[in-house]
Design goal:
Blueprint: E1 12-20, E2 25-33, E3 39-44, H1 52-62, E4 66-71, H2 85-91, H3 97-115, E5 120-125, H4 127-136, E6 143-147, E7 176-181, H5 189-198, E8 206-210, H6 228-243
Parallel strand pairs: 3-4, 3-5, 5-6, 6-7, 7-8
Antiparallel strand pairs: 1-2, 2-4
C-alpha cells in the first residue's frame, strides 16, 4: 500500500476555493463526502504546498467521512516567487506565524459553516507539521495530528514572523498525536524527549516514533524514504484520532 487507503464513503465532492483573509487570498481545496461529515480536517501541506498530491489526499480523507480543507501556505508570496522548491526554501523564513494560523482558522470556519461539522482537527506534514503544533495551541482546534513536524524552528527559518516555538506551547496544545521517525534529522531524539516531558501529565496527547524511519516516510509514496507498511499503520492511527 503506497497511498492513504480509501474509505467506504466513495462519493466525494472536491472543488477549489479561495479563503479571503484581510491581507491575502488563500488558494485552497475543499473535499467533502456526501451526507453529514463525521468531523472536519484542516490540512497544512509540506513546504511544496498545495498540489495534486494533497488534493488527492484531501479526497481520500473525505472517503473516511471527513470534511477537508487544504491550504496553500505560501499564499502571501507572489506566485512567480514560489514556483520551485528552491524558491520556497528561500522564502520560508518570510512566512508569518500569525498569518499561517489565520489561514488555518479560516479553513476551519469554512468547514463549520459549509459542512456543519462540530469537531475540527488540524493535520500537517513536515513544515506543515511544525505549523500544526503551533495551531494546536491556538484554542481553535479540537484535535491535531503532526507528521514529523519540527519541534524547534530551524535556525535559518527564524525571521521576524516566526514567533511561536512548539516546545514552548506544548502544554497548551489540544489533544495531539505526534508521529516521528527515529532517523529524522529534523526531529532529533532530544527534541522528542522534550515533548514527551512536556506531555508527561497529558494522557490526551501521544507520541509515536517509528524505528529507522526517515523524514517524510508517510505522505508521499514517490519519496525514497516512503515506508508503505508503516505509512498505512500511521494513517489508520491518524484517522482514528481525528474522528475522535
Amino acid at each position: 500500500m503506497s497511498h492513504l487507503r480509501e474509505g467506504r464513503e466513495l462519493d466525494v465532492t472536491v472543488e477549489p476555493v479561495t479563503l479571503a483573509l484581510d491581507a491575502v487570498d488563500v488558494p485552497a481545496v475543499h473535499a467533502r463526502p456526501d451526507g453529514m461529515p463525521r468531523a472536519g480536517v484542516v490540512l497544512h501541506p509540506d513546504i511544496g504546498g498545495l498540489r495534486p498530491l494533497f488534493e488527492d489526499m484531501a479526497r481520500r480523507l473525505a472517503t473516511h467521512g471527513l470534511s477537508v480543507c487544504a491550504v496553500e501556505p505560501f499564499a502571501g508570496v507572489p506566485v512567480e516567487e514560489r514556483a520551485t522548491m528552491e524558491q520556497r526554501f528561500a522564502r520560508v523564513g518570510d512566512l508569518d506565524d500569525q498569518q499561517q494560523l489565520e489561514m488555518l482558522s479560516s479553513a476551519a470556519d469554512l468547514l463549520v459553516v459549509e459542512d456543519g461539522v462540530l469537531r475540527v482537527c488540524v493535520l500537517g506534514f513536515c513544515m506543515g507539521g511544525l505549523y500544526t503544533f503551533k495551531a494546536a495551541a491556538s484554542e481553535r482546534f479540537d484535535a491535531a495530528v503532526s507528521f514529523y513536524g519540527m519541534l524547534r524552528t530551524p535556525p535559518d527559518w527564524k525571521q521576524a514572523g516566526h514567533t511561536i516555538e512548539p516546545l514552548d506551547v506544548a502544554a497548551q496544545m489540544c489533544p495531539t498525536l505526534a508521529i516521528f521517525g527515529s532517523a529524522d534529522p529534523y526531529t532529533p531524539a532530544a527534541d522528542i524527549d522534550a515533548l514527551r516531558a512536556a506531555w508527561n501529565h497529558r494522557p490526551d496527547c501521544e507520541i509515536v516514533v517509528i524505528d529507522g524511519a526517515e523524514h517524510g516516510f508517510v505522505h508521499d509514496p514517490d519519496r525514497p524514504a516512503h515506508r508503505a507498511a508503516d505509512a498505512a499503520a500511521c494513517w489508520d492511527r491518524a484517522i482514528s484520532w481525528m474522528l475522535g
